[in-house]
Write a structure and sequence with these properties.
Elements (H helix, E strand, L loop, with lengths): L1 H6 L17 H16 L6 H13 L10 H7 L4 E5 L5 H5 L3 H18 L6 E11 L26 E10 L4 E9 L5 H5 L8 E5 L6 H15 L8 E5 L8 H9 L2 E5 L22 E5 L9
Parallel strand pairs: 2-6, 4-5, 6-7
Antiparallel strand pairs: 1-8, 2-3, 3-4
Helix pairs in contact: 2-3, 8-9
Length: 299
């Protein structure tokens, strides 16, 4: 029966488009191109990000949503895509990284600037730094010579996690900081008692960490403080690969604002001028990437 079908010109079942398929061929091609573009720039999107892409296209024509397992099946039947686990990379190992790989990263930056006509004055780097308020650090103190044992300093019981998002321009000037406190509401004391400059931004999240929504809010903060200083047609924003930079809203706002993004991969993170803060170690996640990926962007 199978041979007879093939001779009659009827395609195999796996070559047919199922009746339950919600996305058109063009829409799937758009998603593939978007994933490959993100992969080229160092942003390996997750299954969740791919599902969001599909749902956004379907929402534009009120066609419902894709299923939970759609991203996995989509990757499985797309030859140009695959999945891999990313990996954490110790900072001390990164300090001993091969100079050739680091040079490859800077070559990518220069090629990107040349391709899109981006001026040096339009290049920015930003990073998040998390720290715990009220945490006492070990330090050298002066004591009596007859004292035994090390003196103790009482650690406050209430310690809050705060995130600071900072950005710097290649010319040396900085974007006003974006502070994220743990909480649900803004406190008037933050603005009345503290001597905080008016151009600083303050936001809140449940745990004081960055979220996808706050990532977009920071990007709007960035656009506000840089749009009047643009020299060329585009800005280049170098990111650190945090999950909040992968969201569709973040990428779309970049596109609307003529901002091209590149991701500093972990092995090149020491090249970031802002990577001096203390942050929580992130767990490995499954990312989607092109089969013909560039070695400079893979950790």
């Amino acid at each position: 029966m199978t041979l007879r079908d093939r001779r009659a010109g009827r395609p195999a079942r796996h070559e047919c488009q199922p009746n339950s398929k919600k996305l058109t061929q063009l829409e799937e091609e758009v998603i593939v191109r978007h994933i490959l573009d993100l992969d080229q720039r160092g942003f390996g999107p997750t299954y969740t990000a791919a599902r969001d892409m599909a749902n956004k296209l379907l929402a534009a024509r009120s066609a419902g949503r894709v299923g939970v397992h759609w991203p996995r099946n989509f990757v499985k039947r797309t030859d140009s895509l695959t999945t891999r686990f990313n990996r954490s990379y110790d900072r001390q190992r990164a300090l001993c990284e091969d100079p050739m790989l680091i040079n490859r990263w800077f070559k990518l930056v220069e090629e990107t600037k040349a391709k899109y006509g981006i001026c040096d004055e339009d290049v920015y780097n930003f990073d998040e730094a998390g720290f715990m308020m009220g945490k006492i650090q070990t330090q050298l103190v002066i004591t009596g010579s007859e004292r035994r044992g090390r003196p103790k300093t009482i650690q406050p019981g209430n310690r809050e996690w705060v995130t600071v998002i900072a950005a710097i321009n290649a010319a040396g000037w900085t974007i006003p900081p974006f502070l994220i406190f743990a909480g649900k509401y803004h406190l008037s004391a933050w603005y009345e008692e503290a001597d905080i400059p008016r151009d600083w931004a303050i936001a809140v999240s449940d745990n004081g960490w960055t979220t996808n929504e706050l990532g977009v809010d920071w990007l709007k903060h960035f656009v506000k403080h840089t749009e009047g200083k643009v020299v060329g047609a585009r800005r280049l924003l170098i990111l650190d690969g945090h999950e909040s930079h992968h969201s569709l809203e973040f990428q779309e706002l970049c596109k609307e604002s003529n901002i091209y993004t590149l991701c500093i991969v972990t092995s090149n993170k020491r090249n970031s001028t802002l990577d001096e803060g203390v942050g929580a170690e992130r767990q490995p996640t499954t990312t989607l990437e092109g089969n013909n990926q560039r070695g400079a962007l893979i950790t």
